[in-house]
Design goal:
Blueprint lengths: L6 E5 L7 H11 L3 E6 L5 H10 L5 E3 L5 H15 L2 E6 L18 H22 L3 E11 L12 H21 L4 E7 L13 H11 L8 H12 L10 E4 L3 H4 L7
Parallel strand pairs: 1-2, 1-4, 2-3, 4-5, 5-6, 6-7
Length: about 260
């Protein structure tokens, strides 16, 4: 029960196949009390189903592009829980058209949307929630190998993830004054709702399974366990880092190719 007595907010649980769900379940299994959010009324029933499974008392609305909802979330946490010990940011988005074709054709609007939702939302969320976090807490965000290498059809999201990883390093210094740690976790390809927007994703899964050192694709349970370690006191000396859990996928990467 590594997380017993810990309370944490997990933003970005879409359903029971999402990476954020794997993280939530791993933390719950180790004794943590969870708080979840839902983006809109359409997604609320899915999050309610997960909340029931994981015995979550409260779920709150949160569209990360709306400052008023961030402020309301902070006030709700302070009112209902006092302070929390960890925060998970599992939020990313780019318009579908920005994931097809050539990166050079990315529109300014698509670029700005990807950066706002996938990168600035971390800064905004941490700024809002940090006042209700205990000293010595932990923050975790999710990245991907496309930040460091060319991945087919990842395009502007690769640039956004690179900016996200840089943000982690700068936030680590700011949060370090209160011994709050922040890290990024880079999972290998997993068949999630978000991944469905990446063209030829099934080919990436096949390639990884065949060529990674462990000859397998990583599972949300494996990602969840690694995340739980980074959110727990076991990683009290670790901050500002990108950590890989991907069956060795980052060793191999994807080849440059055109279909």
């Amino acid at each position: 029960m590594i997380m017993k007595g810990k309370k944490g907010l997990i933003v970005g649980v879409a359903n029971n196949r999402s990476i954020a769900y794997g993280i939530a379940k791993a933390c719950k299994n180790q004794g943590a009390e969870l708080i979840l959010t839902y983006q809109n009324d359409k997604l609320k029933p899915r999050v309610e189903k997960v909340a029931k499974e994981l015995d979550v008392k409260n779920i709150y609305p949160l569209d990360v592009s709306k400052p008023e909802e961030l402020n309301a979330l902070k006030e709700a946490i302070e009112r209902d829980y006092g302070k929390i010990d960890f925060l998970v940011h599992s939020v990313a988005f780019a318009p579908r058209e920005a994931l097809d074709g050539k990166f050079i054709d990315t529109s300014k609007d698509a670029f700005n949307i990807a950066m706002e939702i996938s990168v600035y939302s971390l800064i905004d969320l941490v700024r809002a929630i940090e006042p209700v976090m205990n000293d010595g807490g932990s923050v975790l965000t999710l990245t991907y190998l496309g930040s460091q290498r060319y991945i087919p059809h990842y395009n502007v999201m690769g640039v956004a993830k690179a900016a996200l990883e840089a943000s982690v390093r700068y936030l680590a210094v700011d949060l370090g004054e209160r011994k709050i740690r922040i890290n990024a976790l880079s999972a290998g390809p997993i068949k999630t709702l978000a991944a469905s927007g990446i063209g030829d994703f099934s080919e990436i899964l096949k390639y990884n399974e065949k060529n990674s050192p462990l000859r397998k694709n990583v599972s949300i349970e494996e990602v969840g366990n690694s995340a739980m370690y980074l959110l727990s006191d076991l990683s009290s000396g670790v901050t500002g880092e990108v950590h890989f859990v991907d069956a060795g996928y980052n060793i191999m990467g994807m080849p440059l190719y055109e279909k």
